[in-house]
Write a structure and sequence with these properties.
Blueprint: H1 3-75, H2 82-110
Length: about 110
């Protein structure tokens, strides 16, 4: 291989290396953008799921408040159907049992 052939070979090799480097850099940028997009999507989805969870928790709290409201109304004499009355009676029985258990705790503490 003479000097001119070597120069031509080196130039072609350099051009290929530069082309490869440019392509690799472009692919790296594309990959980085794709990862950033996926990460952003995952963050957005996570935020939305958190909001859903907060809304579900609020629903449960509101149901409890609603139930407590109607329980008090039933205790005040509001007429309701048999199923609602049975649930209210179950709650009243549990409250009575808790009162008795607290009395037992107080008796033990006094000894």
């Amino acid at each position: 291989m003479n000097k001119d052939d070597f120069k031509e070979f080196a130039k072609k090799a350099g051009d290929k290396a530069a082309e490869f480097g440019k392509t690799a850099a472009e692919k790296t940028v594309e990959f980085g953008k794709a990862v950033a997009d996926k990460t952003g999507d995952a963050i957005d989805i996570g935020k939305l799921k958190l909001k859903i969870s907060q809304e579900q928790k609020q629903i449960e709290e509101d149901k409890l408040r609603l139930g407590d409201y109607y329980y008090k109304k039933i205790q005040e004499g509001m007429e309701v159907d048999a199923e609602a009355k049975a649930i209210a009676n179950d709650i009243t029985a549990c409250e009575k049992a808790i009162g008795e258990l607290n009395a037992q705790i107080s008796a033990i503490k006094e000894d």
